[in-house]
Write a structure and sequence with these properties.
This protein is about 20% helix and about 30% strand. By secondary structure, the chain is α+β, with helices and mostly antiparallel strands. The protein has one domain (about 5-205): Sandwich (Jelly Rolls), CATH 2.60.120. The longest helix is centred in the N-terminal third of the chain and has 16 residues, at about 10-25. The chain is globular. The relative contact order is 0.24.
């Protein structure tokens, strides 16, 4: 399983990071309503180009705000855990999407520290596909494109390598392997996806030992 996911045990600093992420998400504008967009948020995050959004995730670059008193803990955590500084909040809800279709994250960052934030019940499951591809097609992010199938197709059971529920514990996820996430409930589910500053999955395994 450690080619795809490494489950962790909580430590004081991982708990601190989870607390900081919950506080960040609480002030981040909703992907559904775009509210509240406070003056504080505009001044601290938008004015520094530290906030990004898509239809299914918010991203805060905490490295850009570590000089602000209430976010200074991030400076130490970034150095200790070898983080890039991006905190992505992945959101699944019927109002947005119940599923992240099979995908991966091409680019230089091989792994991410994953923290449960809101509604991470036992019903929501991440599935990784069996897949090892040559270097020349690492830029393709769609599993179904590689398989020649409609984009919304879920990973068939016979192609699943690992199933995992990010429920009560932190974990490290491999960004370069194809995976999907399905939330079958009516509840908002939010996880924090905090990128390691390395392109090596083997290095991510070493970083997963840091507590």
């Amino acid at each position: 399983m450690d080619d795809y996911i490494i489950e962790l045990e909580w430590s004081d600093d991982l708990r601190l990071m989870q607390k900081l992420c919950k506080e960040l998400f609480a002030i981040t504008p909703s992907l559904v309503t775009n509210l509240p967009r406070t003056d504080h948020f505009k001044q601290i995050f938008e004015s520094r180009d530290a906030y990004f959004r898509s239809n299914m995730w918010n991203k805060i670059n905490v490295r850009k705000v570590v000089d602000v008193e209430e976010y200074k803990d991030w400076a130490r955590l970034i150095d200790k855990f070898n983080l890039y500084g991006d905190v992505l909040f992945f959101v699944t809800t019927p109002e947005i999407t119940p599923v992240f279709i099979p995908h991966r994250h091409p680019g230089e960052f091989a792994g991410a520290l994953m923290l449960p934030i809101i509604g991470t019940g036992a019903d929501s499951v991440t599935k990784y596909a069996h897949w090892h591809d040559p270097e020349e097609i690492k830029s393709i992010d769609s599993y179904n494109y590689m398989k020649g199938r409609p984009e919304q197709t879920l990973i068939p059971d016979e192609e699943v390598a690992v199933e995992y529920c990010l429920h009560e514990k932190p974990a490290v996820f491999n960004r370069h392997q194809f995976h999907q996430v399905y939330n079958p409930t009516e509840q908002l589910r939010v996880v924090a996806h905090i990128v390691y500053d390395t392109e090596s999955w083997e290095k991510c395994k070493e970083l997963s030992l840091i507590r």
